[in-house]
Amino acid sequence: MKSFIRLLLALVLATAARAADRETLTQFSTIPALLAGLYDGEWTCATVLTNGDLGLGTFDQLDGEMIVLDGRCYRTRSDGNVAPVAGGEKTPFACVTFFDADLVISNLTAGSLAEALTALDRKVPSPNLAYALRMEGVFALVKTRSVPAQQKPYRPLTEVVKTQPTFEWRNVRGTLLGFRCPAFAKELNVAGWHLHFITADRQHGGHVLDLRLANQTAQLDLTPALRQNLSTNAAYLQLDLSGDSTEAVRKVEK
Ligand code: ZN
User: Fold this and answer.
1) N vs C: which end of the chain shows fewer Cβ within 10 Å?
2) Which residues are 105's β-sheet partners?
3) What secondary structure, in 3-state letters, does the chain show?
4) If you measure from the C-alpha of residue 12 to the centroid of ligand 1, how many angstroms do you get, rounded to a whole number?
5) Domains of the chain
6) CA 33 to chain CA centroid, nearest Å
7) What distance in angstroms lies between residue 194's CA and the mean position of ligand 1's atoms?
């Protein structure tokens, strides 16, 4: 009987641990490290997918924009086309969570990304938590960018994005997804919203630069736990991260 109770307890604890994991935003490397040009892949996409089924990031050599949706990993290449990614491919930066909708925001209408983000900011229960967002539907406009693979010596991200290819789709069906991190997370991740897009046919996508919304519905997942994985490669260990990255983040996100 005692062993049965122990087994039951173990099962309950394991279930609780799994539930807690689902409420975690798991991050690999940091935005300031990426800004500094640390583009060598360190974690496999398979590892990323064991930590979440929705998220974003980039790939080894900054080769495109990562989109994780429904437990699958996709790459937007620098021509805007999307392809599935094998589990062995590596990433220098990614963040994921297991998406469970805690909050639904309907009737979102916005003439620009800035307007959409302001509207979403008004709806989040607090600026002090992290959130994952998923929005399905037909979008009046989505403008994205992707980035081509870089060669060593790597240029900082602020230089790379000066020549970023951009793409625009109108009346396009797809999924908008990403995260909102608190302002205090700015030396780890993007403070505020960071969104990627993938079309419903999984053929196109990228990092979102602009969009228009008409009466759309967003699902938000509150993620009160943050798990930060740091790089252990030599370039990271020698990096000077004492500066403020706010201005550089603004340049690469816009
Ligand atoms: Zn992005």
Assistant:
1) N
2) 218
3) CHHHHHHHHHHHHHHHHHHHHHCEEEEECCHHHHHCCCCCCCEEHHHHHCCCCEEEEECHHHCCEEEEECCEEEEECCCCEEEECCCCCEECCEEEECCCCCEEEEEEEECCHHHHHHHHHHHCCCCCCEEEEEEEEEEEEEEEECCCCCCCCCCCHHHHHHHCCEEEEEEEEEEEEEEEECHHHCCCCCEEEEEEEEECCCCEEEEEEEEEEEEEEEEEEEECEEEEECCCCHHHHCCCCCCCCHHHHHHHHC
4) 37
5) 22-253 (3.30.1330.80)
6) 16
7) 6
Distance CA 189, CA 57 (A): 11
How far is it, in rounded angstroms, from Cα 64 to Cα 97? 20
Q: Give the distance (Å) from ligand 1 centre to CA of residue 202.
A: 17
Q: What's the 47 CA to ligand 1 centre distance in angstroms?
A: 19
| Cα Rg, the chain, nearest whole Å | 18
Q: What's the predicted TM-score (pTM) here?
A: 0.91
The Å distance, Cα 186 to ligand 1 centre, comes to: 15
Note down pLDDT in tens along the chain; length 254 residues.
566 556 655 655 565 555 668 999 999 999 999 999 999 999 999 999 999 999 999 999 999 999 999 999 999 999 999 999 999 999 999 999 999 999 999 999 999 999 999 999 999 999 999 999 999 999 999 999 999 999 999 999 999 999 999 999 999 999 999 999 999 999 899 999 999 999 999 999 999 999 999 999 999 999 999 999 999 999 999 999 888 888 888 888 77
- CA of 253 from ligand 1 middle (Å) equals 7
Both tokens of 9, joined, read: 């307890």
